[in-house]
Amino acid sequence: MSADAAKALKVITGSSRFEASAEKYTMAQAATDLVAAFPPTVTEDACRVYTPLDTPHFELRITWTLDDSAPTGPSAPEFTELKMGELAVTAADKAYVFFACRSPKYYDPTSPAHIVIGVRRGGMPTEPEGDVEALKDAYATVAHSVSLAMAKELRCEKNGGLPAKPVLDPA
Description:
There is one protein chain. The protein is an alpha+beta fold. Helix content is 26%, strand content 24%. It contains 3 helices and 6 strands. The protein has helices at residues 3-13, 27-36, 132-154, and strands at 44-50, 59-67, 80-82, 87-91, 94-101, 113-121. The chain has a 6-stranded antiparallel sheet. Helix 2 (27-36) packs across helix 3. The radius of gyration is 15 Å and the shape is globular. The model has no long low-confidence stretch (mean pLDDT 86).
């Protein structure tokens, strides 16, 4: 995860320390699972982020989905669209980055895989607390960081069209 994403996690959770996820939750394992999952899948966990046991509970769920095509149609009204990958959307409690990946690791390197990385608050839904715009930027930053890490792990051509830094200005 990028340094910017680590700072964003503090905005989201209020903590700079986290509990370790299960050892199976690595980007390498998530990429292996994604490649093995063709055709399109239900949402799978890449990892979860927890605040330390002696602090208020907070769970952040980071997921991946393999879609059959690029996103189409308008985004839900709760989301702000950003210019990253095929589409990126963010809200005060979640963000998703959609990108296309042509990769030698994928079963058909000539046809792109359509990947969705999601970052959302786990547990029961609650109203976001704090600066809503800062939270939107923070969720988008974490989603971008995980998406870029996945694109690199998969060796996606041109990093799946993802920029080196997150684009936080609305599309």
